[in-house]
């Protein structure tokens, strides 16, 4: 944009000087003094910027496609060695545009015959960067679609990829987020030489509605997770009361063998659970459960306030 404005000012000054020169020739000094003080000299109009852009593009094309323009201006076809021969280039005034077979199309003229821009030229990079900024650093395909509405930049996918990879804003936005280092694994998960389900975590899930004779009733799932090898065992609890839980544990031990340590969930992960589950938990007789566990030589560790559940179960 700054290049366009600079060129626009240069063109405007040149135009003004030419006008003064012609006036001087006519020896009309009075008119000259009046016009030099007009407000139009102090600011750029939209037309000035368009003229500047046109002049820049003409300069770039004349510099990069000299042979092609001279050939086309004599109504000859472009040489076979030219790298834009496949584009079927045509001269539209001073500008070199893509030819093609879309003349009868209802598309906008710039879209049908985009302006050809050279590969790796500084002006091509400036145009690409300006469109990228105007699009608020959007993705690669969006940028490609927008640039092809007006320009045909040779080898544009590579140029776009290079631009985005060097753009500071895009790199900052696509940078990987920081990750927190996980805590050490608890001893229960890394103690070897123990049979499966020697140390387990246990949790409730549900309820599920089941059909019992002619009525519907609720049942709860109980999941036991082996802390060392991650195997699971599922049981069904009739209700959420203490005796039901002890029955579930008895069935589990009868099926999987003696358990050394059980780490049940202690409520914080039930915060989002249903009110029914929470109220039922408060009715548990913890002492009764603990006594039942001690009779079976099981270490019942209920207080896990400071141990994250993800550490115990390996989730998250
Ligand atoms: Zn960017």
TrEMBL record:
Taxonomic path: Eukaryota, Metazoa, Spiralia, Lophotrochozoa, Mollusca
InterPro entries: Integrase_H2C2, RNaseH-like_sf, RNaseH_sf
One Pfam family recorded for the sequence: Integrase_H2C2
Domain Integrase zinc-binding: 124-173
SUPFAM superfamilies the UniProt entry points to: Ribonuclease H-like
Superkingdom of origin: Eukaryota
Protein name: Integrase zinc-binding domain-containing protein
Molecular function as annotated in GO: nucleic acid binding
């Amino acid at each position: 944009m700054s290049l366009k404005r600079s060129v626009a000012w240069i063109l405007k000054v040149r135009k003004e000087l030419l006008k003064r020169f012609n006036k001087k020739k006519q020896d009309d000094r009075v008119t000259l003094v009046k016009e030099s003080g007009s407000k139009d000299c102090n600011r750029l109009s939209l037309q000035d910027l368009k003229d500047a852009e046109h002049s820049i593009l003409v300069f770039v094309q004349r510099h990069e496609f000299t042979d092609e323009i001279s050939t086309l201006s004599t109504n000859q076809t472009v040489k076979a060695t030219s790298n834009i021969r496949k584009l079927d280039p045509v001269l539209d005034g001073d500008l070199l545009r893509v030819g093609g077979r879309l003349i009868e199309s209802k598309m906008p003229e710039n879209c049908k015959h985009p302006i050809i821009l050279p590969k790796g030229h500084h002006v091509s990079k400036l145009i690409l960067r300006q469109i990228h900024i105007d699009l608020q650093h959007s993705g690669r395909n969006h940028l490609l679609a927008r640039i092809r509405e007006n320009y045909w930049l040779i080898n544009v996918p590579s140029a776009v990829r290079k631009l985005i990879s060097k753009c500071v804003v895009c790199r900052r936005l696509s940078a990987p987020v920081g990750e927190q280092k996980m805590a050490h694994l608890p001893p229960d998960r890394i103690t070897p030489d123990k049979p499966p389900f020697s140390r387990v975590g246990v949790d409730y899930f549900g309820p599920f509605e089941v059909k019992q004779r002619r009525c519907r009733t609720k049942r709860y799932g109980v999941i036991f997770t082996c802390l060392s090898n991650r195997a699971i065992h599922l049981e069904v609890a009739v209700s959420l009361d203490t005796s039901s839980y002890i029955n579930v544990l008895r069935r589990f031990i009868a099926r999987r063998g003696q358990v050394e340590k059980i780490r049940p969930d202690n409520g914080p992960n039930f915060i989002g659970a249903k009110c029914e589950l929470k109220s039922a938990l408060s009715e548990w007789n913890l002492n009764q459960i603990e006594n039942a566990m001690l009779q079976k030589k099981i270490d019942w560790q209920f207080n896990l306030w400071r141990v994250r559940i993800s550490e115990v179960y390996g989730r998250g």
